[in-house]
């Protein structure tokens, strides 16, 4: 199978301090990329640097800030850009949300992806670059205890495909792919959602989590993103990520 060598490529990963983003940063580092990890928790990023070494550059910043997006794209011109950072939604039924809590993932997740997609297209990143955005399986089915989360993740999938069309129209050669992970208790964000859905179903968390079957882990997310970045035959616009790996979204 043909494969792009990512040794020496600069990869920038948002939300690298824990969860999927940490697994993605570690996998890309392991594949030989120079990884820039962005998150607000500087101490967690320093821990990751101690683990990965000098090939990892920690940047403590708000990924939803448009100035941060512009500065980091200008400074690093990443060949692989992974827009993974996301806020944990408040787990409550619709009527217990305020507009502020409902729209949290629009203010963080969508805002981040919008600003970085613009910057990637305007720079533009080099031909052959890959931009991967983190949507969610919830974008396909909804997530009734998560306010505006599912809609925000559907919008991320849409605007990633809009960016892909702009890249095509402009002959830029930048790949734009969205990944839709299945709910997993393996990260802080996912564990909170599993706890809320288990309580709603009157089940204990362990048996509710078991009912989800094999779910993605940070290591699996890392392998999946590394293969999307290195394998040009993975050329679909969006992939579901389950415990069994990547599957194109129909
Ligand atoms: N876990 C699941 O079940 C699941 C399912 C589908 C999709 N997803 C998506 O996958 C992505 C990663 O989620 P996860 O489960 O790994 O969550 P997590 O463990 O809570 O990690 C979230 C990451 O995002 C970072 N982050 C949040 N707001 C940020 C901001 N404004 N600027 C920079 N970094 C920010 C956090 O770092 P700091 O707090 O240090 O800033 C952290 O590194 C999210 O987009 C999430 O919606 C998760």
Walkthrough of the structure:
The structure is a single chain. The protein has 250 residues and is an alpha/beta fold. Helix content is 46%, strand content 16%. It has helices at 19-30, 42-52, 66-76, 99-102, 104-122, 138-141, 149-169, 188-201, 205-211, 218-230, and strands at 10-14, 34-39, 56-60, 80-83, 130-134, 175-181, 238-242, 245-248. It has an eight-stranded mixed sheet with strand order 3-2-1-4-5-6-7-8, sandwiched between helices. It is globular and about 50 Å long. The two termini are 23 Å apart. It binds NADP nicotinamide-adenine-dinucleotide phosphate (NAP). NADP nicotinamide-adenine-dinucleotide phosphate is lined by residues 14-15, 17-21, 38-41, 44, 62-64, 84-88, 108-109, 134, 136-137, 181, 183-184, 187-190. NADP nicotinamide-adenine-dinucleotide phosphate (NAP) is lined by residues 14-15, 17-21, 38-41, 44, 62-64, 84-88, 108-109, 134, 136-137, 181, 183-184, 187-190.
Chain-wise SSE layout:
Elements: E1 10-14, H1 19-30, E2 34-39, H2 42-52, E3 56-60, H3 66-76, E4 80-83, H4 99-102, H5 104-122, E5 130-134, H6 138-141, H7 149-169, E6 175-181, H8 188-201, H9 205-211, H10 218-230, E7 238-242, E8 245-248
Parallel strand pairs: 1-2, 1-4, 2-3, 4-5, 5-6, 6-7
Antiparallel strand pairs: 7-8
Helix pairs in contact: 1-10, 3-5, 5-7, 8-9
The structure holds NADP nicotinamide-adenine-dinucleotide phosphate.
